[in-house]
Design brief:
Low-confidence stretches: none
Oligomer: single chain
Number of strands: 6
Strand content: 15-25%
Structural class: alpha+beta
Length: 135
């Protein structure tokens, strides 16, 4: 049975400062593991198990090292959410070819993330489609 639609808003707001936190060190410790729930094709995340309510990953993203690099660049650039779980931000955002992707922490002990594209209007209001922070 599926959970009912979300009743509380997602915590999609950019962190404005990182005092006492080295985002570069957090980035180095972060990795992408993916999720079969967002895949419609076999991948490093396992056999596809695309949920009907999940964003579908672009099949061009097959290189795990490249996706991990995107994640690490986004963290180092400060495109992280205000909510942290342990040593890692719960949400991270990165823009590729005008599409905003969200990575969500799935293992706070190891700093592992899954990611998916966001629909227009779902991204943090202080981040635009070219990945720039808006003042």
């Amino acid at each position: 049975m599926r959970a009912p639609k979300r009743k509380r808003p997602l915590l999609r707001s950019l962190q404005t400062s990182s005092e006492g936190v080295s985002l570069a060190k957090v980035a180095q410790r972060s990795t992408y593991v993916g999720s079969a729930e967002h895949k419609s094709f076999p991948s490093f995340a396992g056999h596809p198990r695309l949920r009907s309510d999940a964003s579908k990953c672009d099949p061009k993203f097959t290189d795990l090292a490249e996706i991990t690099t995107f994640l690490q660049l986004a963290i180092a650039a400060g495109n992280v959410g205000t909510h942290w779980e342990g040593d890692f931000p719960r949400y991270v955002w990165h823009v590729i070819d005008g599409v905003i992707y969200e990575a969500r922490l799935v293992n706070q002990e190891l700093g592992q993330y899954k990611g998916y594209p966001l629909r227009h209007g779902e991204h943090p209001e202080h981040l635009n489609e070219v990945g720039e922070k808006l003042e």
